[in-house]
Design brief:
Layout lengths: L15 H11 L3 E2 H4 L5 H6 L4 E4 L3 E2 L9 E2 L9 H12 L3 E6 L10 H14 L4 E5 L7 H8 L5 E3 L9 H4 L5 H14 L4 E8 L5 H13 L4 E6 L16 H14 L3 E4 L11 H5 L1
Helix pairs in contact: 4-5, 5-6, 6-8, 9-10
């Protein structure tokens, strides 16, 4: 399917990708930007920003939309939290996003590694705001508590799509479980902002998207991102439709009326794209 004109991105300046990649490689770090084939990779790398992906680049789940590699991951690297903190310091970041592959092979789903990384970043960079983009931890409240206790500024967990499409898009996940996780964050610490994101263009209806927004507000979710699904390879789910920019604008208007504190809704928006904008505007 040919990309419409509003999807296309400018190529980054020569050397930008190589410079950032060399720095990350020197610290043994992965980024979701590269692993997930993000269309904004060049723009973000040019700004000196990246979403670091901890606990390796192999995921234990097989979502139909995701380009991250699948398979049995290596054990978490005990030096990784300090390396992430060093990266934040080296780039002089004001806001950092820490995400991970889903680690169903670990008893706590990787919650301890998240907690240690947040603590390391905050100890070395006291002024930085920290956002964690977490998996569902199979619904474990104990795992979630490990992360929340470190007091990240934002806890993000993406619903990704509407409930009707979960079996096709996220077969090992559960819509109700993911929604409940976001609600539990607020119960554990009401001061933490919660965030979620979805992709459109997978066959969902407008009514289903609005119902999902209402569900998120029902559990107190503060921040919402909506972007166009783009097929990473012929092996992944097909694009059902390219959603026009004006529809993204309508979604943003509805979300604002529902009470979200911040909404990013446009074709190239991704969950971590310009993530620090929330703090600039609030």
């Amino acid at each position: 399917m040919q990309l419409p004109p509003w999807i296309k991105q400018r190529a980054p300046a020569p050397g930008v990708l190589e410079q950032m990649k060399n720095m990350l490689d020197s610290l043994g770090l992965n980024t979701v930007c590269e692993s997930a084939h993000c269309p904004n990779l060049g723009e973000c790398f040019a700004k000196g920003t990246a979403t670091v992906m901890i606990m390796g680049d192999r995921c234990t789940r097989s979502c139909g939309f995701c380009a991250v590699g699948k398979g049995l991951p290596h054990p978490p690297d005990p030096n990784e939290p300090a390396n992430v903190a060093a990266m934040v310091n080296k780039l002089d970041l004001k806001h950092v996003v820490i995400t991970s592959v889903t680690r169903d092979d670990l008893e706590d789903g990787g919650a301890l590694q998240f907690a240690e990384t947040v603590k390391a970043v905050k100890q070395k960079n006291a002024a930085v705001t920290v956002e964690v983009l977490i998996p569902d931890f199979k619904g474990s409240c104990a795992s979630l508590e490990k992360v929340v206790e470190t007091k990240p500024d934002i806890v993000n967990h993406n619903l990704e799509t509407v409930p009707r499409l979960y079996q096709k898009v996220r077969p090992q996940a559960q819509y109700a479980r993911s929604l409940s996780l976001l609600g539990k964050v607020k119960k554990l610490d009401a001061a933490i902002y919660t965030k979620s994101g979805i992709m459109v263009g997978l066959g969902e209806t407008t009514g289903e998207v609005i119902a999902l927004m209402e569900d998120l507000r029902g559990v107190g979710c503060d921040i919402l991102t909506i972007g166009q699904y783009l097929r990473p390879s012929p092996l992944h789910l097909e694009i059902e439709d390219f959603i026009k920019p004006e529809i993204f604008g309508e979604y943003k208007t509805v979300a604002g009326k529902l009470g979200f504190k911040y909404v990013a809704s446009s074709p190239l928006v991704r969950s971590s794209y310009n993530a620090s904008d929330f703090f600039r505007t609030n």
